[in-house]
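Z., the sequence and structure:
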Amino acid sequence: MTRPFQDKLINIEPYTAGEQPKSADIIKLNANENPYPPSPEVQKAISGFDAGALRLYPPMDAAPLRKAIAEYYGIGQDSVFAGNGSDDVLAAAFRAFFNSDKPLLYPDITYSFYPVWCELLKIPYETVPVDEGFNVHVEDFFRENGGVVLPNPNAPTTIGLGLDAIEELVKHNRNSIVIIDEAYADFSEVSCVPLIKKYDNLVITQTFSKSRSLAGMRVACAIADPYLIGYLDAVKDSYNSYPMDAVSILAGAAAISDREYFEQVRKKIIATRERVTVQLRELGFTVPDSSANFLFASHCERPAEEIFSYLREQGIYVRFFRKPRIDNYLRITIGTDQQMDKLISALRSFLG
């Protein structure tokens, strides 16, 4: 069919998310979701919400959530931006901070949404290769650029950098904005939030989808110098004045305020991660030490796609990437101990 308007449509390769199974019997280990429910305080907040208030617009600045995040980190509320999931926050940051004719830099193996935003927003970019062990070397980013984006820990490789390395990255790029995407940082021992008091070119993004079990709510934030937060607010007000709904604001505030429950769940996931890492290695998998809530595994003999297909037949969904350099690796979300035991049992059967 001839479409004379075809040249006016956007030409872009869309982001591909993990498969969403239709059956509740599936063990879903392909989207890095938390296997445990959110804090009981979230349920209380939702149950106590007056549905009649939905006739009103939510607070434009998501003030209750921003206040709760600021109190959690011991920073000013004017250093916090709240958004509708980390993708929303990152998209606002890309619009606000990367308007140079110089290229944005990010690792060649990383979160695959970054090039999507660059294409959408016409941001020039260059990828910086990680090494053969998938490690990021910050000195490779010590060159002229229009900005830097780095997930820490990185995805899908699970590998994180220490605070000293991140600080070197920020110090050597004072003429640009550096975004550290901390989607999985709660499962490591490193967060860069303390650095925002020293560097006004640093932006940290975080999500409540992973460690706080709110993937279905879409809650996230950015933490930065108030000057930069002002630019994010300006972008939000220009593109979408009310990006967060009233229920999500209250649920997010409740989730981050319950420190005790958060620590219980976080430690449980880390303990399961360490146990399963050992088991996978015993089965012949190469598994980098993970700082996230997932593992990145490659078997010494059997192709990743073959293992992926077998697990899928057994009702266990993991993530397989048909991409250069990582097309023989599986990304495996950490589930409950029972789910991970079924995964290990299935792998033992497959590997004989």
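The two ends are 52 Å apart (CA to CA). Residues 40-257 form a domain with the Aspartate Aminotransferase; domain 2 fold (CATH 3.40.640.10).

Let me know what you think.
H.
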